[in-house]
Fold these 2 entries.
Entry 1:
Amino acid sequence: MGLKIYNSLSRQLEEFSPLTEGHVSMYSCGPTVYDYIHIGNARTALVTDIIRRYLTYKGYTVKLVQNLTDIDDKIIARAQTLGTSSSQLAHTNGEAYFEDTQRLGIQLADVHPKATEHIPEMIDLIQTLIDKGAAYVVDGSVYYRVNSFNEYGKLSRRKPEDLLAGARVEVDERKEDPRDFDMWKAAKPGEPYWDSPWGPGRPGWHIECSSMAMKHLGETIDIHAGGEDLLFPHHENEIAQSELATGKPFARYWVHVAFLKIDGTRMGKSEQNFIFLRDALDKYPAEVIRHFLISAHYRHPLDYSLESLQKSESALRRLKNCLETLKKYEEETPEVTDGNSSTLRDVSDADTTLLSAIETMQSQFTAAMDNDFNTAQGMGTIFTLVSQINRALGSSNGISDQTFAHAYKVLSETCQVLGIYTMDEQDTAGTAEFLNPLLELLLEIRQDARSQKDWDTSDKIRDRLKQLNIEIQDTHEGSTWKFVS
RNA sequence: GGUGGCGUAGCCAAGUGGUAAGGCACGAGUCUGCAAAACUCCUAUUCGUCGGUUCGAUUCCGACCGCCACCUCCA
C-alpha cells in the first residue's frame, strides 16, 4: 500500500493501483540485439528487475514481458559487415544478452518475445490500422497516418508544429506527413523478409512492441518501462498504434529510466563511449555494479567511473561484513533454542532498542521504495541499520542471539529486494573446500610460531599467502583467511 | 529554434516550507607483536548566483550563469 510511481504520461507522482487487484502486468523494452549490451542498457534492465522484485516483495503477482528486437536495420547492416546472417547474429547476441543480464543478477522475465516470432500478430495489427484508415500503403511499405490519431504527442508533449519546426529529419517524399512512420518496410534486394499482404518486407520497430505487449499482456498493461530516449518517438508511436487499434489505454504507468553518463555525457552506442556490461562484470562483482547503478534515483542521470565503482565496492564490503557476522548467529540459534530455554526470554533493553531499529529500517525502506522506487534512499536506511547493528555487536551488552538472527533475516531479505546480497559465494566455495585443510595447517604452524614470538616465520607465511591473494587476519578468536582480489 | 531535466560537503548521493539521510575518501581512536581487516567517532550555520513571496526557503516564484538530454537509430 502506498506505492507511488512517477508517470511520464501525466508527469506526476501517482498512486499505484493495478488494473487487476494483486496482479501487475509490466512490459519493458528490451535490446536490439546487434551487439553486446553496455552498462547503460543494463541500467534500464536493472531498474525493471528491481521494480519487479519490489512489487513481488509487496505481495503482487507480477508478469513481466521483455522483448528482443531481433530484426532491424542495424542488425542487417552489422550482419553484412560480419559476413553472417541477420538471424545468426541476432541469435548469438540474444544469448549473450541473457548471459550478461543473468550475471548481473537480473532475473529472467516471464516472457521474452522475439520480434521475428510475432510477424503474424504484427501483420494483423497493421491490417487493423489500415482498415481503420489509420495507415496507408506505398510501394510495399505501410505507414502510420499520425494525423488520424488526435492524441498524438500526448506522451512527449510535442505539438505538430514543434515536430516540424526543427526538422532535421530527412523527409521521405512518399509520406503524406513527415511525422508518419513505417510499420512495415518493404524489403530491399538481399535483405531478409517475410511475406505480407503488402509484399515482402519486415516490421518496423514500433509495431513490434505494440503487438508483443498486447499479445502477452492484454490491450491495457499496467507498467511500461524503457529508457528515456524511447519516450519519443518509440513510445509515442506505440501509444498511437495500440490505442487507435483497440480504443483503450495502452499503458497506465509509463516509467522512463534516465541515462547512464560517462565523462558527463550520455553513454551510447552511437557516441562510441560505451563499456560493455560483460567487460565490467569481468572486473567487478555483480553486486558492486548493481550497487553503483542503483546508487542514484532511476530518473536522475548517473555518471559512470571507475572511482564510483570503487566506492560501491567499499560500501558493499561494509554491508557484507555486517551480514556475515550476523549470519553466524542465524546458524547457531536453532541449536541454542533446542536445549537452553534461557535465551528465549528476558528481552533486554538493548534487545528492544535493536529490535525497534530493525523495525524502523523496514518501514523506512518501504517508504523509500514506495516513493517511486527510491533505491538511493532505501540504501540509506539499510546502512543506517548496519551502523546500529555494528554498534550493538561491539557493545556485547546482553543482546540475545535471536535478536541478531532476526536482524540477519530482515537485513538480508531487504538486500535481496535490491539484489545486492545473494550472489557469488559459490564460485569460490569449491576451491575453498579443497584449500581449507591446507590453510588450516599453515595457520596452525603460524600460530605456533607466534606463540614463540617467532615473528619472522609468522610474517613470512602471511606475506607469501598475500602474494597468492589470500589474506590472513588475526582476531581475538584466532586467525582467519579469505580470498582477496 | 521547441521541449524536459539537473546544479546539495573533497567525491558520489537522498531529502524537506521550520532549520541538511546514507556511502566513499580524510583525520582521530579501539583492537594488534607489527600489520591488515574490522569497528567507533569526527567532517556542510549550508544546499549554483541574484532577487521575490513567507514569521521562516536549500525546498515555492522570477531572472541569470553553468551542465545534460530529447526533437534522427540508440536503454
Entry 2:
Amino acid sequence: MNVMNESPRRKELTRLAAQLFVQEGFDRTTVRMLAQEMGIKSGSLFHHFKDKQEILAAVIEEGTQNALAIARQSLKRCGSDPEARLRAMARAHLETLFADRNAHVVALFEWRRLDPAASAHLSHLRDAYEALWVDVIDAALNAGLIHGDRFLVSRFVLGALNWTVRWYDPNGSRTPDDLADELVGMIMAR
Amino acid sequence: MNVMNESPRRKELTRLAAQLFVQEGFDRTTVRMLAQEMGIKSGSLFHHFKDKQEILAAVIEEGTQNALAIARQSLKRCGSDPEARLRAMARAHLETLFADRNAHVVALFEWRRLDPAASAHLSHLRDAYEALWVDVIDAALNAGLIHGDRFLVSRFVLGALNWTVRWYDPNGSRTPDDLADELVGMIMAR
DNA sequence: CATTCACACTAGCGCTTGCTTGGTTACTCA
DNA sequence: TGAGTAACCAAGCAAGCGCTAGTGTGAATG
C-alpha cells in the first residue's frame, strides 16, 4: 500500500471514485467496479488506498478542501461590505458545488458511511467551512440586511443551497450566479 | 408471499424497517437484520414482502401518503388567505417530517435505491405533493407577499425545509412551528 | 371434524463482497 | 548497468448476501 500521500495517480483515482459513488452510491459501488473504471484490476486498488473506506474519505476531503479554499478566496476579494460578502459566499458555495459536483454530492449524502475516525477528522474541516458562513450571516444581521435568528437563518440558507444539487440543471438557462442572487434577494429585507 | 395488502402486521414491520434504514442505510441493512429487529427469522420476512425492494417502497409510500394527507387537511382548515396558507404548508411539512421522521429520511436520502417501476409510481405521489406547494407559492407571489421566480422560490423553500432533518433536534427548545414561522418570516417582503 | 389460512421455522444454494497474497513489469536514478 | 520502487496482475479466501424450498403450527372456517 501507498503511504497516505497525494500522488497525482491517487488524485485521478479519487476523481473517478467520486463519479461512481454518485452514480451508484457508496455501498453499491464494489471495488471491482472502481477498478474497472480506473482501468486496473481490483487487487491493484489496494496499492493506492488502504481500504474502501479510505477512498470515500479521500473523495470527501478533496471536495471540502476545495470549498474552503474557494470561499476564503472569494471573501478576501470582495471587501468588507456585508451584502457583498453574503452574495460572495452564496456564489462561492454554488460555484464549488457544481465545479466539484461529484465530490460534494458524496460529501452531502454519503457522510454517514464514514467510519468514526475519518468522520471526526472531516467534521473539523466542515466546521471550519460553516464558521465562515456564520460570520457572514452575523454581519448581515448586524447590518440589518436580513432578519431572524442567526442559527436558523444560516441553516435555512445552507439547506436551500445544498438542496440545489437535487434539481439544478447546469445545462439550463440559469447560471449558478443567478441562483445565488435570487436566494440573496429572497431573504433580504427590502 | 402475502398479497400487497396493508395488514396491520405489515404496517408494523414497515415502521421497524424505516428505523433500520435510517440507522444503517438501505444497502447496509440486511434482511437478517430486519428479521431480527422484527423478532422473526430472515426467511419469514418474505411472507410479508416480495423482496427487499418492496420493503423500501412500502416505507417511502407510507411517508409520502401521510405528508399528502396532512398537507391537504391543513390547507382545507386555514381558509384562503395567502399568508395563512403559506404558513400552514410550512408547518404541515415540518409536522409530518418529524412525526414520520424515519420514513421521510428514507424517502429523501434512499430514493435512488428504488427500482424503476417503484420509482415511477412514487414519483407521481411526490409530484402531487409538490404541486400543492407550487400553488401556495404562486398565490403568495401574486399577493406580493414574497418576491422572485416561482420555480426557484419553491425549490429554495423545500430545500431549506427538507434539510432540517439533518440538524433539527426535537428535544431542543424550538418547536417545528417555530421553524416554520421563522422561515416564512425570513422570505416575506416587509 | 376436516380443511384452510396466516405466519413462522430450518436449511442451505448460488453468488458477490472486501481484501490478501505472491509474484511480475516498467521506470528512475546512482 | 543494476538496485530500488511504484504500479500492476492472477488467483483466491472467508464471510456475508438475497432469496428459495419445504415443513410445522395454532386459530379460524366450512
